[in-house]
Each structure stands twice: as structure tokens, then as C-alpha cells.
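Re-run with default settings, no changes from the original entry. Doing this only to confirm the output is reproducible before filing.
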Amino acid sequence: MLFQTWIKRFLPNRTFTQNFQISHQFHGIIENQIEETYIIQPISDLGLQTLLDGIQISDQSLHLKSRIDVYSDSIKVSLKVIDPIDAQKVLNEVKITLVRHLLNFEKRFYSSPVVQYVEKFCQQCTYNKSKPLNQCIANCRFQPKKQDRKEAMIVKP
């Protein structure tokens, strides 16, 4: 586990592409500035859990360079730049911030003794994988899965 965390921390682009995808929308050139939007969406359970937990991008220089809107299912980064390299720099800063949030969330969430205890019972629940794990635990309505008739007929001593 420690080695995996080390890899995730030191290879942020790889960690980002494993958990998020980016779609790009070009709006045109307005007043000699390139106007475009990047939409970042989670593609893994961990990415979705991280967004649902809440992300705050507190770097004020990022907010001065772009407009960042954080939703529960995506992040929208709107840019107006003269040089496309500036847009890539801002996007890379957002990626690194997201990876930092993701790793902090993963460490905090999966090291919780409550999560470690409850996660064992989640495989036996009918609601397993119906929601991301953090939302399922927060709104837990444990209901055991129905057993097969053959298993129910076997009496254990």
C-alpha cells in the first residue's frame, strides 16, 4: 500500500488519468484571446468519491487566471488566454491540485477504522456498489442479500 501511494504521489499525471478524464470545448477567439473550457469528470470510484466529498481549490492565482466551477460530478475550468501554453499551465496546476485532494481523501477515508469495519459488511449488502462507498456509508441502509435456496437449506452445526 505504501508503494502504491508513493507511485500515485510522484506520478501525478498517471494518477490523474486513472481517475479523471478531460473533455475540451473551444469557443473561439474573442478580442485576441482564446476562449475555451475544460470539463474534468471522474472515471473511477475513487475520483467520484473525491468529488462527492467536496473539493476546494484555494489557490487564488488559479482563480485569477481562470474560472473554476466545482460540481458534485465534474469540474469546469473556463479560460481566456492569449497563449495556449498558459492554458496548459493552468490545467496542469488544476490536475496537481486534484491529485493532491484525491490522495488526501484516500488516505483519510480508507484509514478510518469505521470504514475498515463497515466495508467488510458492504459485500453482503443488497445496496453494494449502488452508490460510491463514502455516500453508501453516510446513508447506510444495510439489507443482507438473499441467500440461494440450497444455501438456506444447509444447516450449519
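The two ends are 39 Å apart (CA to CA). Helices lie at 2-10, 12-19, 45-53, 60-65, 84-110, 113-122, 133-138, 149-153.
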